[in-house]
Design a protein that fits this description.
mainly alpha; INTS7; ARM repeat superfamily protein
């Protein structure tokens, strides 16, 4: 799927459905969500966006209406989605047109929504208001944020990458966005690379083919001496995202293990141990190998920081092995 060039189009009107949604407000908690356009006063706009974020989180916790609820509130099935798309379009326009403080505020909203969705006990693909099934205008969202990436400075490009990561559910399948994320991994700016690592990690949770490409780039990145140390360590941390399915986790684990054994840097080794422990903790078949590795490192003479990290990883891995794995094919929730 490719993105077309952005062309300005009017935001859909929600005035016709507003009366019905006023009656729906006790369920959604979004009584004032039509006021998403960028206010003229900067201070007021930040306050308004933060309030919108709080109300969207309430909506996110209970995003589905039953047939009975549609009837009670006099809604036509699908009107809630139209309303949600209109709200998101206004937020996206605020991101496109607003200053960096407004952009940062909007990013925080979507980061929070993403965290809440990942922590949810409900793993339905259509769960939450960030799901692809809820957002029919998602291609328009991506086009407008891509404008920011194409025309903004390094900080704005990084913000756009973080937003793409938050929208991984529908951004991961769009070729232009995948290319942006992958190509940004080799940017000369450390801030942009770290943002692309975040976005790529989000994509990896949902796309197996993207994960395999990401692993190859990540491997080259962390061994390159031309890349700054903090960026290399950020790349090592990103290995922990490569944990599903098992074929990918096994490949990532073996790759990380080789890099670990070839490294003499304690800081690199410590971060890689943490990532490998996180990967192994997801699969029973990898836990025994990780415990054996950690036990070996405990007996070696290394720095105190590295030994402390090894013991923490051993405790973490043992706890996961005992508590969270009823079968070899189960993934820790």
């Amino acid at each position: 799927m490719m993105l077309l060039e952005y062309t300005s189009s009017p935001v859909p009107s929600v005035t016709q459905t507003w009366t019905k949604f006023q009656r729906l407000a006790p369920w959604t908690g979004v009584l004032s969500l039509t006021r998403v356009s960028v206010p003229k006063k900067p201070g007021k706009s930040i306050e308004a966006i933060k309030e919108i974020g709080c109300r969207l989180e309430c909506w996110n916790r209970d995003s589905k209406l039953t047939v009975a609820e549609y009837k009670i509130f006099g809604l036509i099935p699908g009107e809630d989605k139209l309303f949600l798309n209109a709200i998101f379009l206004r937020l996206v326009d605020a991101f496109r047109l607003g200053d960096k403080d407004i952009k940062s505020c909007i990013i925080n909203i979507f980061l929070s929504l993403r965290r809440k969705r990942r922590r949810s006990s409900v793993k339905d693909a259509d769960c939450g208001i960030l799901s692809k099934g809820k957002l029919e205008n998602y291609m328009e969202f991506l086009r407008r944020v891509k404008v920011v990436f194409d025309t903004g400075d390094v900080e704005e490009r990084s913000m756009a990458l973080v937003l793409f990561g938050c929208w991984a559910d529908f951004a991961k399948d769009v070729a232009d966005i995948r290319y942006i994320v992958l190509s940004s991994l080799v940017s000369d700016d450390a801030y942009e690379v770290k943002a692309s690592l975040f976005a790529a990690g989000c994509f990896c949770e949902l796309s197996d083919d993207f994960s395999n490409v990401f692993l190859e780039i990540l491997t080259r990145m962390v061994i390159s001496l031309e890349i700054p140390r903090d960026v290399r360590l950020a790349g090592v941390r990103a290995f922990a995202k490569l944990c599903c399915p098992f074929s990918l986790a096994d490949k990532a684990y073996k790759t990380g293990l080789k890099l670990l054994k070839d490294s003499s840097e304690d800081d690199f080794s410590s971060v890689m141990l943490i990532s490998l422990s996180k990967i192994a903790s997801k699969w029973t078949l990898l836990i025994s190998a990780q415990i054996e590795l950690l036990t070996l490192f405990v007996s070696e003479e290394r720095s105190l920081d590295f030994q402390a990290t090894t013991l923490r990883c051993l405790n973490f891995t043992l706890a996961k092995g005992v508590c969270d794995f009823p079968s070899a094919t189960d993934i820790v929730p």
